[in-house]
C-alpha cells in the first residue's frame, strides 16, 4: 500500500484507510453536482435581451434560493399566457425594500427582465412596477446581482 497511516498518533488499520478513500472519492464525485444545483444566470437567461410583460399576479413565493412570481398575461388575441419571473434570493430582495407581502395575488404588475433562452414564458426579474407605474422596491436588479 502507501505506507502506514496515523491519526493522533494511533496507527490506522487497512480497513480505515479503505473507508477513508471511499468517502473522499464520494465527496469528490458529489461536489460538481452540488455546484450545478445553483444554476448560472447565463445558462438559463439571455443577458443580451429584455422582455416586459403586464399581468395579474397569481402567486408570489418569497423563498430560497430564488423567489418566483407567477402571473397571467393577456395576449393580443385575448388568450391568457402563464408567465413566471424568477427573483433574487429573499435576502437581496429585502435589501432592495421588498417584503413577503409587497405583492399579492390579484395585483396587476409590469415586469421587465431577461427572457429564458428556451423561449418559454419565463424570465429573470430586473424591475417591477405596480398598476400605477410606481417601482416596486428601491432599485432595479442588475446582472451582477444574480444570486
Can you offer a commentary on this structure?
There is one protein chain. Helix content is 23%, strand content 33%. The protein is of the alpha+beta class. It folds into two domains: 5-37; 41-145, Nucleic acid-binding proteins (OB fold (Dihydrolipoamide Acetyltransferase, E2P)), CATH 2.40.50. Strands 3-4-5-7-6 form a five-stranded mixed beta barrel. Strands 1-2 form a two-stranded antiparallel ribbon. The radius of gyration is 23 Å and the shape is elongated. It starts with a strand and ends in a 17-residue tail after the last strand. Mean pLDDT is 84; it is low at 33-38.
Q: Which helices and strands appear, and what pairs or packs with what?
A:
Blueprint: E1 5-7, E2 10-12, H1 14-37, H2 41-44, E3 51-61, E4 68-74, E5 80-86, H3 90-95, E6 108-115, E7 122-130
